[in-house]
Design a protein that fits this description.
Strand content: under 5%
Order of helices and strands: HHHHHEHHEH
Number of strands: 2
CATH topology of the largest domain: Recoverin, domain 1
CATH class of the largest domain: Mainly Alpha
Shape: elongated
Oligomer: single chain
């Protein structure tokens, strides 16, 4: 993964020393892996004016110092709901939208959790399967995570 400065330079296609709103959105998608909500992006975009005024700078877009400030202050982070969906999709290896007990058991093995006996694994699975349908769905996983 590129550093914030390398990311800025990469998305500043025309070497104008600032990012347009679209380039900012693309750079942030690259760095955090998901598209930010419009309101969050708009807030970051509008925040540049106060930053430039304080630093006695001017720029029609987001310059490197402001971009670095966004990254350093962790003003960007994906919404929790998106993170939960990403985590779940990484666990749902078959992409079926649900995880059965066999998949769950294989997931535990894949992360070297081999020391649990079948009863313990079944108990954990049953606790994660909130609606009791025999599968861990995104809804079950979301309920567990929140």
């Amino acid at each position: 993964m590129m550093s914030p400065e390398e990311t800025f330079r990469y998305f500043d296609k025309h070497r104008k020393n600032y990012l347009t709103k679209h380039e900012l959105r693309c750079a942030l998608i690259y760095l955090i892996g998901i598209k930010l909500d419009y309101d969050v992006l708009q807030e970051l975009w509008e925040g540049k004016d106060a930053f430039y005024k304080e630093k006695k700078m001017a720029s029609p877009g987001v310059n490197l110092p402001y971009f670095q400030k966004i990254i350093q202050k962790n003003d960007i982070h994906p919404p929790e709901e998106k993170l939960i969906e990403l985590e779940y999709s990484s666990l749902d290896i078959q992409g079926k939208g649900n995880i059965d007990y066999f998949q769950f058991s294989n997931l535990l093995k894949s992360v070297n959790i081999n020391y649990l006996n079948e009863k313990t694994k079944r108990d954990i699975f049953d606790k994660l399967d909130f609606d009791g349908d025999g599968y861990i769905s995104l809804k079950d996983y979301r309920y567990f995570m929140m």
